[in-house]
Protein backbone atom coordinates (compact mmCIF):
# COMPACT_ATOMS: atom_id res chain seq x y z
CA UNK A 1 0.00 0.00 0.00
CA UNK A 2 1.31 3.44 -0.92
CA UNK A 3 2.63 5.72 1.83
CA UNK A 4 2.01 9.44 2.16
CA UNK A 5 4.56 12.05 3.19
CA UNK A 6 3.66 11.46 6.84
CA UNK A 7 4.58 7.79 6.57
CA UNK A 8 1.00 6.70 7.20
CA UNK A 9 -0.60 4.50 4.56
CA UNK A 10 -3.19 5.83 2.19
CA UNK A 11 -6.36 4.54 3.73
CA UNK A 12 -4.94 4.78 7.25
CA UNK A 13 -7.86 4.22 9.61
CA UNK A 14 -8.29 7.39 11.66
CA UNK A 15 -11.20 7.44 14.07
CA UNK A 16 -12.38 7.00 17.62
CA UNK A 17 -13.04 4.18 20.09
CA UNK A 18 -16.01 3.49 22.35
CA UNK A 19 -17.63 0.69 24.35
CA UNK A 20 -21.33 -0.18 24.39
CA UNK A 21 -21.60 -0.18 28.18
CA UNK A 22 -20.10 3.31 28.47
CA UNK A 23 -22.03 4.75 25.56
CA UNK A 24 -25.35 3.17 24.66
CA UNK A 25 -27.56 3.32 27.73
CA UNK A 26 -31.04 1.83 27.12
CA UNK A 27 -30.10 -1.03 29.43
CA UNK A 28 -33.63 -2.48 29.55
CA UNK A 29 -34.84 -1.64 26.04
CA UNK A 30 -35.94 -4.05 23.29
CA UNK A 31 -35.22 -7.25 25.15
CA UNK A 32 -31.71 -6.48 26.35
CA UNK A 33 -30.62 -8.42 29.42
CA UNK A 34 -28.59 -7.06 32.31
CA UNK A 35 -24.81 -7.11 32.01
CA UNK A 36 -22.06 -7.00 34.58
CA UNK A 37 -21.45 -3.34 33.70
CA UNK A 38 -25.06 -2.49 34.57
CA UNK A 39 -24.37 -3.47 38.18
CA UNK A 40 -21.53 -1.02 38.91
CA UNK A 41 -22.90 1.84 40.97
CA UNK A 42 -21.52 5.35 41.11
CA UNK A 43 -19.34 6.09 44.13
CA UNK A 44 -18.53 9.77 44.73
CA UNK A 45 -14.85 10.69 44.62
CA UNK A 46 -14.69 11.48 48.34
CA UNK A 47 -15.83 7.93 49.13
CA UNK A 48 -13.38 6.20 46.81
CA UNK A 49 -9.93 5.01 47.75
CA UNK A 50 -7.97 6.00 44.66
CA UNK A 51 -8.95 4.95 41.15
CA UNK A 52 -9.11 1.22 40.80
CA UNK A 53 -10.24 -1.21 38.11
CA UNK A 54 -10.96 -3.71 40.90
CA UNK A 55 -14.72 -3.12 40.85
CA UNK A 56 -17.27 -5.46 42.31
CA UNK A 57 -20.80 -6.45 41.37
CA UNK A 58 -23.60 -4.68 43.17
CA UNK A 59 -26.43 -7.19 43.20
CA UNK A 60 -28.09 -9.73 45.47
CA UNK A 61 -29.48 -12.78 43.72
CA UNK A 62 -30.28 -10.74 40.66
CA UNK A 63 -32.25 -8.05 42.52
CA UNK A 64 -31.01 -4.57 41.66
CA UNK A 65 -29.15 -3.30 44.71
CA UNK A 66 -30.01 0.22 45.85
CA UNK A 67 -32.77 0.42 43.26
CA UNK A 68 -34.16 3.64 44.71
CA UNK A 69 -31.25 5.61 46.11
CA UNK A 70 -28.24 4.40 44.13
CA UNK A 71 -27.29 5.28 40.58
CA UNK A 72 -25.80 2.93 38.02
CA UNK A 73 -24.39 5.24 35.31
CA UNK A 74 -23.74 2.64 32.63
CA UNK A 75 -27.44 1.82 32.46
CA UNK A 76 -28.19 5.20 30.92
CA UNK A 77 -24.68 6.24 29.76
CA UNK A 78 -25.05 9.03 27.13
CA UNK A 79 -28.04 7.46 25.38
CA UNK A 80 -26.17 6.66 22.18
CA UNK A 81 -28.78 3.95 21.59
CA UNK A 82 -31.34 6.63 20.73
CA UNK A 83 -28.93 9.32 19.48
CA UNK A 84 -26.49 7.38 17.30
CA UNK A 85 -27.58 9.09 14.08
CA UNK A 86 -26.80 12.50 15.55
CA UNK A 87 -23.45 11.27 16.88
CA UNK A 88 -22.52 9.50 13.65
CA UNK A 89 -23.10 12.71 11.71
CA UNK A 90 -20.63 14.45 14.02
CA UNK A 91 -18.05 11.67 13.58
CA UNK A 92 -18.54 11.91 9.83
CA UNK A 93 -18.04 15.68 9.98
CA UNK A 94 -14.65 15.04 11.57
CA UNK A 95 -13.89 12.70 8.68
CA UNK A 96 -13.69 9.43 10.61
CA UNK A 97 -12.49 6.50 8.53
CA UNK A 98 -13.39 4.02 11.27
CA UNK A 99 -15.26 3.85 14.55
CA UNK A 100 -14.53 1.26 17.18
CA UNK A 101 -17.66 0.07 18.96
CA UNK A 102 -18.56 -3.04 20.89
CA UNK A 103 -21.64 -5.18 20.61
CA UNK A 104 -23.46 -5.53 23.90
CA UNK A 105 -23.53 -9.31 24.23
CA UNK A 106 -26.65 -9.11 26.46
CA UNK A 107 -28.45 -7.18 23.72
CA UNK A 108 -28.03 -10.21 21.43
CA UNK A 109 -28.31 -13.02 23.99
CA UNK A 110 -30.06 -11.45 27.01
CA UNK A 111 -29.03 -14.22 29.41
CA UNK A 112 -25.87 -15.27 27.59
CA UNK A 113 -26.91 -18.91 27.42
CA UNK A 114 -30.09 -18.43 25.35
CA UNK A 115 -30.64 -20.84 22.50
CA UNK A 116 -31.88 -18.13 20.13
CA UNK A 117 -30.70 -14.52 19.71
CA UNK A 118 -32.81 -11.43 20.34
CA UNK A 119 -33.85 -10.12 16.94
CA UNK A 120 -34.42 -6.58 18.23
CA UNK A 121 -30.83 -6.44 19.41
CA UNK A 122 -29.51 -7.71 16.09
CA UNK A 123 -31.65 -5.15 14.28
CA UNK A 124 -30.17 -2.29 16.32
CA UNK A 125 -26.63 -3.11 15.22
CA UNK A 126 -27.79 -3.65 11.63
CA UNK A 127 -29.13 -0.10 11.68
CA UNK A 128 -26.01 1.23 13.40
CA UNK A 129 -23.64 -0.37 10.89
CA UNK A 130 -25.77 0.89 8.01
CA UNK A 131 -25.52 4.41 9.41
CA UNK A 132 -21.74 4.10 9.71
CA UNK A 133 -21.32 2.71 6.21
CA UNK A 134 -23.52 5.47 4.79
CA UNK A 135 -20.73 7.87 5.76
CA UNK A 136 -17.93 5.54 4.69
CA UNK A 137 -16.99 4.78 8.30
CA UNK A 138 -15.49 1.30 8.66
CA UNK A 139 -16.84 -0.56 11.74
CA UNK A 140 -14.18 -1.94 14.08
CA UNK A 141 -16.11 -4.19 16.43
CA UNK A 142 -15.20 -5.69 19.80
CA UNK A 143 -17.10 -8.82 20.72
CA UNK A 144 -16.61 -8.52 24.48
CA UNK A 145 -15.78 -5.17 26.09
CA UNK A 146 -16.36 -5.38 29.85
CA UNK A 147 -20.00 -6.34 29.35
CA UNK A 148 -20.63 -10.01 30.17
CA UNK A 149 -24.33 -10.96 30.43
CA UNK A 150 -25.11 -10.90 34.15
CA UNK A 151 -26.83 -14.28 34.13
CA UNK A 152 -23.53 -15.85 33.08
CA UNK A 153 -22.05 -14.50 36.30
CA UNK A 154 -24.99 -15.58 38.45
CA UNK A 155 -25.30 -19.09 37.02
CA UNK A 156 -21.74 -19.96 36.03
CA UNK A 157 -19.44 -17.38 37.69
CA UNK A 158 -18.47 -15.97 34.34
CA UNK A 159 -15.33 -16.99 32.50
CA UNK A 160 -14.09 -19.14 35.37
CA UNK A 161 -16.52 -21.70 33.99
CA UNK A 162 -15.51 -23.44 30.79
CA UNK A 163 -19.11 -23.45 29.57
CA UNK A 164 -18.71 -19.81 28.59
CA UNK A 165 -16.54 -20.87 25.65
CA UNK A 166 -19.60 -22.43 24.02
CA UNK A 167 -21.89 -19.51 24.84
CA UNK A 168 -19.35 -17.04 23.45
CA UNK A 169 -18.73 -18.95 20.21
CA UNK A 170 -22.50 -19.20 19.64
CA UNK A 171 -22.71 -15.43 20.06
CA UNK A 172 -19.68 -14.88 17.81
CA UNK A 173 -21.05 -17.14 15.06
CA UNK A 174 -24.39 -15.34 15.25
CA UNK A 175 -22.98 -11.84 14.78
CA UNK A 176 -20.36 -12.93 12.23
CA UNK A 177 -23.11 -14.47 10.11
CA UNK A 178 -25.44 -11.51 10.53
CA UNK A 179 -22.90 -8.79 9.77
CA UNK A 180 -20.52 -10.59 7.42
CA UNK A 181 -21.17 -8.06 4.65
CA UNK A 182 -20.85 -5.03 6.94
CA UNK A 183 -17.94 -5.62 9.35
CA UNK A 184 -14.43 -6.55 8.27
CA UNK A 185 -12.43 -5.78 11.43
CA UNK A 186 -13.16 -7.62 14.69
CA UNK A 187 -11.53 -7.76 18.14
CA UNK A 188 -12.24 -10.76 20.35
CA UNK A 189 -11.77 -9.37 23.89
CA UNK A 190 -11.06 -5.85 25.07
CA UNK A 191 -7.87 -5.55 27.16
CA UNK A 192 -7.83 -9.29 27.73
CA UNK A 193 -5.17 -8.95 30.45
CA UNK A 194 -7.62 -7.09 32.70
CA UNK A 195 -9.05 -10.47 33.71
CA UNK A 196 -6.04 -10.93 36.02
CA UNK A 197 -6.45 -7.46 37.57
CA UNK A 198 -10.23 -7.28 37.90
CA UNK A 199 -11.83 -10.65 37.06
CA UNK A 200 -15.32 -9.18 37.39
CA UNK A 201 -14.63 -6.38 34.92
CA UNK A 202 -12.76 -8.54 32.45
CA UNK A 203 -14.81 -11.69 32.69
CA UNK A 204 -17.78 -11.50 35.03
CA UNK A 205 -15.93 -13.57 37.63
CA UNK A 206 -16.52 -13.21 41.38
CA UNK A 207 -13.38 -14.62 42.98
CA UNK A 208 -15.06 -14.73 46.38
CA UNK A 209 -17.40 -17.38 44.96
CA UNK A 210 -14.43 -19.76 44.64
CA UNK A 211 -13.20 -19.76 48.26
CA UNK A 212 -10.95 -22.79 47.87
CA UNK A 213 -8.88 -21.13 45.11
CA UNK A 214 -6.45 -18.21 45.16
CA UNK A 215 -7.22 -15.00 43.29
CA UNK A 216 -4.57 -15.76 40.66
CA UNK A 217 -5.67 -19.36 40.21
CA UNK A 218 -9.21 -18.21 39.43
CA UNK A 219 -8.10 -15.33 37.20
CA UNK A 220 -5.61 -17.27 35.08
CA UNK A 221 -8.05 -20.16 34.64
CA UNK A 222 -10.60 -17.66 33.33
CA UNK A 223 -7.95 -16.20 31.02
CA UNK A 224 -7.26 -19.65 29.58
CA UNK A 225 -10.93 -20.07 28.74
CA UNK A 226 -10.86 -16.70 26.96
CA UNK A 227 -7.77 -17.72 24.99
CA UNK A 228 -9.53 -20.82 23.69
CA UNK A 229 -12.69 -18.84 22.94
CA UNK A 230 -10.72 -16.15 21.10
CA UNK A 231 -9.02 -18.75 18.91
CA UNK A 232 -12.31 -20.46 18.10
CA UNK A 233 -13.90 -17.11 17.27
CA UNK A 234 -10.95 -16.32 14.98
CA UNK A 235 -11.52 -19.65 13.24
CA UNK A 236 -15.24 -18.94 12.80
CA UNK A 237 -14.63 -15.44 11.49
CA UNK A 238 -12.30 -16.73 8.77
CA UNK A 239 -14.82 -19.39 7.80
CA UNK A 240 -17.78 -17.00 7.63
CA UNK A 241 -16.49 -13.56 6.56
CA UNK A 242 -14.54 -13.05 3.31
CA UNK A 243 -11.38 -10.97 3.84
CA UNK A 244 -11.91 -10.67 7.57
CA UNK A 245 -9.22 -9.35 9.92
CA UNK A 246 -9.36 -10.47 13.57
CA UNK A 247 -7.25 -8.87 16.26
CA UNK A 248 -6.47 -9.35 19.91
CA UNK A 249 -6.52 -6.34 22.26
CA UNK A 250 -4.12 -5.69 25.13
CA UNK A 251 -3.92 -2.99 27.78
CA UNK A 252 -0.24 -2.29 27.13
CA UNK A 253 1.55 -1.18 30.25
CA UNK A 254 5.07 -0.52 29.03
CA UNK A 255 7.33 -0.55 32.08
CA UNK A 256 10.65 1.19 32.64
CA UNK A 257 13.32 0.57 35.30
CA UNK A 258 13.83 3.63 37.51
CA UNK A 259 17.59 3.05 37.71
CA UNK A 260 20.17 1.05 35.79
CA UNK A 261 20.62 -1.29 38.74
CA UNK A 262 20.40 -4.83 37.36
CA UNK A 263 17.57 -5.66 39.75
CA UNK A 264 15.53 -2.77 38.37
CA UNK A 265 16.27 -3.87 34.80
CA UNK A 266 15.09 -7.40 35.56
CA UNK A 267 12.01 -6.20 37.44
CA UNK A 268 10.91 -4.02 34.53
CA UNK A 269 11.58 -6.84 32.09
CA UNK A 270 9.44 -9.17 34.19
CA UNK A 271 6.58 -6.64 34.26
CA UNK A 272 6.72 -6.33 30.48
CA UNK A 273 6.89 -10.09 29.93
CA UNK A 274 3.91 -10.68 32.23
CA UNK A 275 1.96 -8.03 30.33
CA UNK A 276 2.94 -9.44 26.93
CA UNK A 277 2.12 -12.99 27.98
CA UNK A 278 -1.38 -12.39 26.63
CA UNK A 279 -0.22 -11.40 23.16
CA UNK A 280 2.37 -14.18 23.21
CA UNK A 281 -0.50 -16.67 23.48
CA UNK A 282 -2.79 -15.01 20.95
CA UNK A 283 -0.11 -14.19 18.36
CA UNK A 284 2.50 -16.93 18.77
CA UNK A 285 -0.10 -19.51 19.68
CA UNK A 286 1.45 -20.91 22.84
CA UNK A 287 2.11 -20.24 26.49
CA UNK A 288 5.63 -18.86 26.97
CA UNK A 289 8.06 -20.77 29.16
CA UNK A 290 8.22 -17.96 31.70
CA UNK A 291 4.56 -18.58 32.59
CA UNK A 292 5.20 -22.26 33.24
CA UNK A 293 7.73 -21.20 35.86
CA UNK A 294 5.42 -18.51 37.24
CA UNK A 295 2.53 -20.96 37.57
CA UNK A 296 4.76 -23.53 39.29
CA UNK A 297 6.19 -21.00 41.76
CA UNK A 298 2.73 -19.67 42.63
CA UNK A 299 0.91 -23.02 42.83
CA UNK A 300 -1.28 -22.21 39.84
CA UNK A 301 -2.57 -25.15 37.85
CA UNK A 302 -4.34 -24.38 34.57
CA UNK A 303 -6.95 -27.00 33.80
CA UNK A 304 -6.96 -27.67 30.07
CA UNK A 305 -8.91 -30.05 27.92
CA UNK A 306 -7.24 -32.18 25.29
CA UNK A 307 -6.99 -30.07 22.15
CA UNK A 308 -6.87 -26.66 23.84
CA UNK A 309 -3.21 -26.07 23.04
CA UNK A 310 -3.75 -27.16 19.44
CA UNK A 311 -6.69 -24.76 19.02
CA UNK A 312 -4.65 -21.85 20.37
CA UNK A 313 -1.74 -22.77 18.10
CA UNK A 314 -3.80 -23.23 14.97
CA UNK A 315 -5.85 -20.03 15.07
CA UNK A 316 -3.73 -17.00 16.02
CA UNK A 317 -4.99 -13.45 15.43
CA UNK A 318 -4.25 -11.47 12.27
CA UNK A 319 -3.18 -8.25 13.98
CA UNK A 320 -2.44 -6.80 17.41
CA UNK A 321 -4.47 -3.95 18.82
CA UNK A 322 -3.81 -2.26 22.13
CA UNK A 323 -4.57 0.64 24.42
CA UNK A 324 -1.84 3.04 25.46
CA UNK A 325 -2.31 5.86 27.94
CA UNK A 326 0.89 5.96 29.98
CA UNK A 327 4.11 4.21 30.84
CA UNK A 328 4.93 2.63 34.20
CA UNK A 329 8.12 2.86 36.25
CA UNK A 330 9.28 0.34 38.87
CA UNK A 331 12.25 -0.03 41.18
CA UNK A 332 13.76 -2.24 43.85
CA UNK A 333 15.88 0.59 45.20
CA UNK A 334 14.10 1.84 48.29
CA UNK A 335 10.92 3.82 48.82
CA UNK A 336 9.89 6.14 45.99
CA UNK A 337 6.92 8.44 45.41
CA UNK A 338 4.08 6.36 44.01
CA UNK A 339 1.71 7.43 41.25
CA UNK A 340 -1.66 6.25 40.07
CA UNK A 341 -1.48 3.82 37.23
CA UNK A 342 -4.32 2.15 35.36
CA UNK A 343 -4.44 -1.37 36.87
CA UNK A 344 -0.82 -1.19 38.06
CA UNK A 345 0.14 -1.33 41.70
CA UNK A 346 3.50 -0.20 43.04
CA UNK A 347 4.27 2.07 40.10
CA UNK A 348 6.51 4.98 41.03
CA UNK A 349 6.88 8.51 39.80
CA UNK A 350 8.96 9.18 36.71
CA UNK A 351 10.40 12.67 37.32
CA UNK A 352 10.75 13.26 33.58
CA UNK A 353 7.00 13.05 32.89
CA UNK A 354 3.96 15.22 33.54
CA UNK A 355 0.73 13.76 34.88
CA UNK A 356 -2.92 14.08 33.88
CA UNK A 357 -5.78 15.33 36.07
CA UNK A 358 -6.21 11.71 37.13
CA UNK A 359 -2.56 11.11 37.97
CA UNK A 360 -1.63 9.13 34.88
CA UNK A 361 1.86 9.90 33.62
CA UNK A 362 1.96 11.31 30.08
CA UNK A 363 4.63 9.68 27.93
CA UNK A 364 4.29 10.15 24.14
CA UNK A 365 7.71 8.66 23.42
CA UNK A 366 6.59 5.61 25.32
CA UNK A 367 4.06 5.01 22.56
CA UNK A 368 6.84 5.01 19.97
CA UNK A 369 8.83 2.59 22.14
CA UNK A 370 5.75 0.39 22.54
CA UNK A 371 5.05 0.27 18.80
CA UNK A 372 8.65 -0.55 17.94
CA UNK A 373 8.81 -3.18 20.69
CA UNK A 374 5.65 -4.89 19.41
CA UNK A 375 7.06 -4.76 15.87
CA UNK A 376 10.35 -6.33 16.88
CA UNK A 377 8.72 -8.99 19.03
CA UNK A 378 5.95 -10.14 16.68
CA UNK A 379 6.27 -8.59 13.20
CA UNK A 380 2.47 -8.34 12.95
CA UNK A 381 0.34 -5.37 11.83
CA UNK A 382 -0.54 -3.09 14.75
CA UNK A 383 -3.59 -0.98 15.56
CA UNK A 384 -3.75 1.67 18.31
CA UNK A 385 -7.38 1.32 19.39
CA UNK A 386 -7.28 3.42 22.57
CA UNK A 387 -5.25 6.53 23.39
CA UNK A 388 -6.44 9.78 24.87
CA UNK A 389 -6.49 12.22 27.76
CA UNK A 390 -9.11 12.20 30.48
CA UNK A 391 -9.45 15.76 31.78
CA UNK A 392 -11.77 18.32 33.33
CA UNK A 393 -13.34 20.49 30.62
CA UNK A 394 -14.93 23.91 31.19
CA UNK A 395 -17.82 25.25 29.17
CA UNK A 396 -17.39 29.00 28.62
CA UNK A 397 -20.27 31.46 28.83
CA UNK A 398 -20.57 31.50 25.04
CA UNK A 399 -20.73 27.69 24.96
CA UNK A 400 -17.21 27.17 23.61
CA UNK A 401 -14.88 24.56 25.10
CA UNK A 402 -11.16 25.19 24.84
CA UNK A 403 -9.09 22.05 25.40
CA UNK A 404 -5.52 22.79 24.27
CA UNK A 405 -4.24 20.18 26.77
CA UNK A 406 -6.05 17.46 24.84
CA UNK A 407 -4.76 18.69 21.49
CA UNK A 408 -1.23 18.83 22.89
CA UNK A 409 -1.48 15.29 24.28
CA UNK A 410 -2.75 13.83 21.01
CA UNK A 411 -0.34 15.84 18.86
CA UNK A 412 2.67 14.55 20.76
CA UNK A 413 1.49 10.95 20.53
CA UNK A 414 0.75 11.16 16.79
CA UNK A 415 4.21 12.66 16.22
CA UNK A 416 5.70 9.57 17.84
CA UNK A 417 3.47 7.32 15.74
CA UNK A 418 5.08 8.91 12.68
CA UNK A 419 8.53 8.05 13.99
CA UNK A 420 7.50 4.45 14.61
CA UNK A 421 6.11 4.11 11.08
CA UNK A 422 9.38 5.41 9.68
CA UNK A 423 11.12 2.76 11.79
CA UNK A 424 9.16 0.13 9.88
CA UNK A 425 6.09 -0.47 12.03
CA UNK A 426 3.06 -1.67 10.03
CA UNK A 427 0.38 0.54 11.61
CA UNK A 428 -3.21 0.01 10.44
CA UNK A 429 -4.92 2.85 12.23
CA UNK A 430 -5.52 5.01 15.28
CA UNK A 431 -8.78 5.35 17.21
CA UNK A 432 -8.66 7.97 19.95
CA UNK A 433 -10.45 6.84 23.07
CA UNK A 434 -13.73 8.49 23.82
CA UNK A 435 -14.30 10.69 20.75
CA UNK A 436 -17.47 11.74 22.54
CA UNK A 437 -17.64 12.15 26.32
CA UNK A 438 -18.83 8.94 27.92
CA UNK A 439 -18.95 7.16 31.29
CA UNK A 440 -15.57 6.25 32.78
CA UNK A 441 -15.08 2.50 33.01
CA UNK A 442 -13.03 2.63 36.20
CA UNK A 443 -14.72 5.39 38.20
CA UNK A 444 -18.19 5.72 36.59
CA UNK A 445 -17.61 9.46 36.34
CA UNK A 446 -18.77 11.75 33.58
CA UNK A 447 -16.34 14.50 34.59
CA UNK A 448 -13.39 12.45 33.34
CA UNK A 449 -13.82 13.61 29.76
CA UNK A 450 -11.90 12.35 26.73
CA UNK A 451 -14.09 13.53 23.87
CA UNK A 452 -13.84 15.87 20.93
CA UNK A 453 -17.59 16.22 21.52
CA UNK A 454 -18.91 17.49 24.84
CA UNK A 455 -21.98 15.85 26.37
CA UNK A 456 -24.04 17.92 28.80
CA UNK A 457 -24.21 15.54 31.76
CA UNK A 458 -22.58 15.65 35.19
CA UNK A 459 -21.41 12.92 37.57
CA UNK A 460 -24.84 12.75 39.18
CA UNK A 461 -26.55 12.17 35.85
CA UNK A 462 -27.97 15.68 35.53
CA UNK A 463 -27.98 17.46 32.17
CA UNK A 464 -29.63 17.70 28.79
CA UNK A 465 -27.27 15.25 27.01
CA UNK A 466 -26.86 17.93 24.33
CA UNK A 467 -23.75 17.50 22.17
CA UNK A 468 -21.34 20.37 21.39
CA UNK A 469 -17.98 20.60 19.66
CA UNK A 470 -14.76 21.29 21.54
CA UNK A 471 -11.74 23.00 19.95
CA UNK A 472 -10.17 19.55 19.59
CA UNK A 473 -13.04 18.56 17.26
CA UNK A 474 -11.77 20.94 14.59
CA UNK A 475 -8.13 20.05 15.23
CA UNK A 476 -8.72 16.30 14.80
CA UNK A 477 -10.75 16.96 11.65
CA UNK A 478 -7.70 18.69 10.18
CA UNK A 479 -5.42 15.83 11.25
CA UNK A 480 -7.61 13.33 9.43
CA UNK A 481 -7.99 15.52 6.31
CA UNK A 482 -4.18 15.71 5.97
CA UNK A 483 -3.57 12.06 7.00
CA UNK A 484 -1.58 13.26 9.98
CA UNK A 485 0.48 15.86 8.11
CA UNK A 486 -0.94 18.98 9.75
CA UNK A 487 -0.76 18.68 13.53
CA UNK A 488 -0.64 22.44 14.21
Question: What does this entry look like structurally?
Answer:
The protein is 36% helix and 14% strand. It has 488 residues and is α/β, with parallel strands linked by helices. The protein has a single domain, classed as TIM Barrel. Strands 1-4-5-6-7-9-13-14 form an eight-stranded parallel barrel, surrounded by four helices. A two-stranded antiparallel ribbon has the order 2-3. A two-stranded parallel sheet has the order 8-10. It starts with 12 loop residues before the first strand and ends in a 7-residue tail after the last helix. One of its GO terms (biological process) is carbohydrate catabolic process. InterPro entries: GH (IPR017853), GH_1_N_CS (IPR033132), Glyco_hydro_1 (IPR001360), Glyco_hydro_1_AS (IPR018120).
Which key features would you list for this structure?
single chain, about 500 residues, alpha/beta, TIM Barrel, eight-stranded parallel beta barrel, two-stranded antiparallel sheet, 14 helices, 16 strands, about 35% helix, about 15% strand, globular, Glyco_hydro_1_AS, 6-phospho-beta-glucosidase, beta-glucosidase activity, GH_1_N_CS, hydrolase
